[in-house]
UniProtKB/TrEMBL annotation:
SUPFAM superfamilies with a match to the protein in the record: Integrin alpha N-terminal domain
Pfam family, any one: FG-GAP_3
Protein name in UniProt: VCBS repeat-containing protein
The organism's place on the tree of life at top rank: Bacteria
Record key words, sorted: Signal
InterPro entries referenced in this protein's UniProt entry, alphabetically: FG-GAP, Integrin_alpha_N
Length: 367
């Protein structure tokens, strides 16, 4: 209850200087604004993009459906700026999976949309720093059917590549390397990783400049496996944690203490719980060989109910922070900044209206 009181107090403080709709006592990430996300049958997770290249991570929202609109709000370091900044009106239609990444390696993040299914094309729109250019098909055969797409620079050449996890019993991990103008043909980089309903993630957990693959088993086993990139393949899988991201927690990767190695972050998730019960954010720091779980949560209550959590360095200090998108009709964004030892919730909302209804936010962990 102490945590809840603190959060409510922060909300009241914010009322004094927040411009926008009248503050509501319930205006905090703990309030479900949308139907809770389903269990980890299908989903995807994306990292934050720095779309204007100022080294602070920004946020994007994809309407999908018939419209295919993409909105961006750029970080000032203290909030996300801009309402209705339409960066593309022809990108990520219907139920395509939209992810951010710097595919041409110019320092500005771009967007990729994965069609999956029977015609698994991947479309990319490059950032100009002020908008996304014309969308182009970069490959016509990647992440078919229900394979889980992800983005990361797995060969460390400065251009983000794409990764697809088949999961199930035939858990192949495929990679298509970026040339800066297209993706090379898909090749298998691991024959058996992220099996069953494991939740996969991509990040550089040993800090060698090449993004690695991570699988969270969740549930009652709650183990975490890692396969390190050699630059040409993912090596033998190893268990880096025996107890992390249990039950239905939403797992992600981010370098939260700024040592160059991506750490594991878990957002507790119980759609049945009331907001008062809280949803802790737990961190396991990478040592380069294992994830060391921190004994105390880094945040007591965050992104509960249907709010979508995300990870990114929103103030550009080199440490990854956490965001919560309430979506629905309220459509607020909250940010808690990493101090290197915890997440400190900022007193004001970072945006008053972004990623409304069921729009897909990035960064976002959508399982
Ligand atoms: Ca930026
Ligand atoms: Ca690459
Ligand atoms: Ca690595
Ligand atoms: Ca930060």
């Amino acid at each position: 209850m102490q945590v809840l009181t603190a959060v409510v107090a922060l909300g009241a403080m914010a009322a004094a200087h927040v411009v926008g709709p009248a503050p509501d006592p319930a205006d905090r990430p703990g309030v479900p604004a949308d139907r809770p996300l389903s269990a980890a049958v299908d989903g995807f997770a994306g990292r934050a993009g720095d779309f204007d290249g100022d080294r602070r991570d920004d946020v994007a929202a994809f309407t999908r459906g018939e419209g295919g609109d993409v909105y961006v709000a750029r970080s000032t370091g203290a909030r996300f700026d801009g309402i209705g900044d339409l960066w593309s009106d022809t990108f990520a239609f219907w139920s395509q999976a939209p992810l951010a990444g710097d595919f041409d390696g110019d320092g500005r993040s771009d967007v990729a949309a994965f069609a999956r299914g029977g015609k698994p094309t991947v479309t990319v729109a490059l950032s100009t720093g002020r908008s996304f250019g014309r969308s182009r098909v970069w490959t016509t055969s990647f992440a078919p059917n229900v394979e889980i797409p992800a983005v990361g620079d797995v060969n460390g050449d400065g251009r983000d590549d794409i990764v697809a996890f088949r999961r199930g019993s035939d858990a192949v991990v495929s990679v298509a390397l970026s040339t800066g103008r297209s993706f090379r043909p898909s090749t298998p980089w691991h024959g058996h990783f992220a099996t069953g309903p494991s939740v996969p993630a991509v990040g550089d957990v040993n800090g060698d400049g090449r993004d690695d693959v991570v699988a969270f088993t969740r549930g009652e086993s709650a183990a975490v496996a890692v396969a390190l990139s050699t630059g040409r393949t993912f090596g033998r899988a190893a268990w880096w944690s025996g107890w992390f991201a249990e039950d239905r927690a939403l797992p992600g990767l981010g370098d939260v203490n700024g040592d160059g190695r991506a750490d594991a972050v878990a957002f507790a998730r119980d759609p049945e719980a009331s907001p008062e019960q809280g949803a802790e954010v737990t961190v396991a720091l990478s040592t380069g060989r294992t994830f060391r779980r921190m004994p105390a949560p880094w945040l007591g209550s965050w992104a509960t109910g249907g709010a979508v959590p995300g990870i990114g360095d929103f103030n550009g200090d080199g440490r990854d922070d956490v965001a919560a998108f309430t979506r629905g009709g309220r459509a607020d964004i909250y940010v808690a900044l990493s101090t290197g030892r915890g997440f400190r919730q900022t007193p004001a909302r970072w945006h008053e209206y972004f990623a409304a209804a069921t729009e897909i936010p990035q960064p976002g962990i959508l399982w």
